[in-house]
Amino acid sequence: TQLLEQSPQFLSIQEGENLTVYCNSSSVFSSLQWYRQEPGEGPVLLVTVVTGGEVKKLKRLTFQFGDARKDSSLHITAAQPGDTGLYLCAGGRGGSNYKLTFGKGTLLTVNP
Amino acid sequence: DAMVIQNPRYQVTQFGKPVTLSCSQTLNHNVMYWYQQKSSQAPKLLFHYYDKDFNNEADTPDNFQSRRPNTSFCFLDIRSPGLGDAAMYLCATSRDQAGHEQYFGPGTRLTVT
Predict the structure, then answer these.
(1) Is B86 on the interface with A (CB under 8 A)?
(2) Bridge-partner residues for B34, per DSSP?
């Protein structure tokens, strides 16, 4: 069974602070997605990373895929209350297996 | 805009009373998924369709069934809802087996009374 472990599980910070969320596995993934989910809504895809060592930026969010494609991180600079939500990482194996393995999520609260 | 639509957004049903949740997509994606999500947990895959091929997860209860009459629509039928089935139900799509990006609908919040 492939597992994706996310840490921390809960994070409460003040507006303006920086934070990093981690997603780790002992398995190799062909791709890794990050989603953000707001209360009462479905997850929204933020980014997909597919190459070991890849770094992608989305405004104040920086995503990195580990060199061995077993781990990923999400860094948020100068967090804002609008960043509040459940952040989910999900890994794909590729080929004919098109199911995603989800981490348990990081619940982020950014206080004004 | 191309999107995944779920109806209704909120559904209340009685214990044991069958209920159907619907999902439609304008993305023309081949794969459609149904997930169950309980409070602040990761989505749990129930089953998925690759085109018309149905794939059930081993631990999905028989109480949950699905239908996909055409590319655009997919339904989740809960034959006899129990209190433990109260959850958010998420529909998602992906283009094909090579593309792992999944696009989720807004979900249906199911309450069982």
Answers:
(1) no
(2) B47, B91
- pLDDT at position A19: 98
β-pairing, A19-24 vs A71-76, is antiparallel
pLDDT score recorded for residue B13:
96
Q: Collect all residues of chain B within an 8 Å Cβ-Cβ radius of residue A105.
A: 40-42
Which residues lie below 8 Å from residue B59, measured CB to CB, with a gap of 6+? none
Where residue B1 falls among pLDDT bands split at 50, 70, 90? low
Give the pLDDT mean for A13-30. 95
Q: What is the pLDDT of residue B39?
A: 86
- What is the DSSP secondary-structure string of B66-77? EE-SSSSEEEEE
Q: How many CB atoms lie within 10 A of CB B113?
A: 10
**How many angstroms from the chain centroid is the CA of residue A100?**
13
Q: Does the beta carbon of A46 lie under 8 angstroms from any beta carbon of chain B? A: no
